[in-house]
């Protein structure tokens, strides 16, 4: 488990490179997130972030599937490279995930952000594999490009139509004159715009599917809540029995014998129980607990405890 200081440093590296988000979400609860935001605020007073819901039931399923993909990819990387250094492998898995084609946005996440496909040194250049294999120094590379420079089409100096910067263009180029930076900026905007359109289409499709498949519940209904793997260990139950104790804006407030669950749950993330195993009167309304805390109270912990002493007891 990372300390709040370690998490803060990791966040700062990403935020200062790509910018900070508006909302920070975590499965560790509002208290943990709030402490991170306070510490970030001390180091970066101009940065304003709000903490989101500790659990967003509508998106939890897709998050779990994505986490499972990353876990499988990391396991394959460690096996293929015959190493247990998962922290290094995680960086390669992240690069691979961001470079892969995304079905919803129609392009890779990397291309949607930067406007071009990721580069892997000279491997992503137009040079032949035979040439790449003999390249060692910068001088070797210059020799290769000297031949291309001699065969280039004649270029003229013109001004960019957007920023006015002088740039070199081919004499038979198109009417629109753009410098490299403005051209790349337009590609980034186009990629993000098209990606946003596809995400909206996917969201609309999910809403239509939910209207058809999601059951309706009323106060007093006995239900079953699936427990994500992140909140349970190998010996913990995969589901818990609960009851709907309140409803608001199509969301359900859930209660158990051990306490009331934090947050509100959508009907698509709970299931009908086969019988009335618990009534509202049996709910302990004096305590508000997270799903992980409910599971721990049922079994006394989250999975197995490991010993790291030399005796390996």
Describe the structure.
- Helix 2 (30-43) links the parallel strand 1 (23-24) and strand 2.
- The model is unreliable at 302-306 (pLDDT under 50).
- The protein has 313 residues and is of the alpha+beta class.
- The strands form five sheets. It has a five-stranded antiparallel beta sheet, with no helix packed on it. It has a two-stranded parallel ribbon with strand order 1-2. The chain has a two-stranded antiparallel sheet with strand order 3-4.
- The chain is built from nine helices and 13 strands.
- The chain has helices at 4-18, 30-43, 57-80, 86-99, 109-114, 129-132, 138-150, 180-213, 291-299; strands spanning 23-24, 50-51, 101-102, 107-108, 155-159, 166-170, 222-226, 239-248, 251-255, 260-261, 265-266, 271-272, 288-289.
Number of E strands: 13
Largest sheet: 5 strands, antiparallel
Radius of gyration: 27 Å
Shape category: elongated
Which runs of at least 5 residues are low in confidence (pLDDT < 50)? Answer: 302-306
Structural class: alpha+beta
Structure annotation, total helices: 9
Order of strands across the widest beta sheet? Answer: 11-9-8-7-12
The H-and-E topology, N to C, reads as HEHEHHEEHHHEEHEEEEEEEH
Question: β content, as a range?
Answer: 5-15%
The percentage helix is 40-55%
Distance separating the two termini: 22 Å
Let me know the average pLDDT. 78
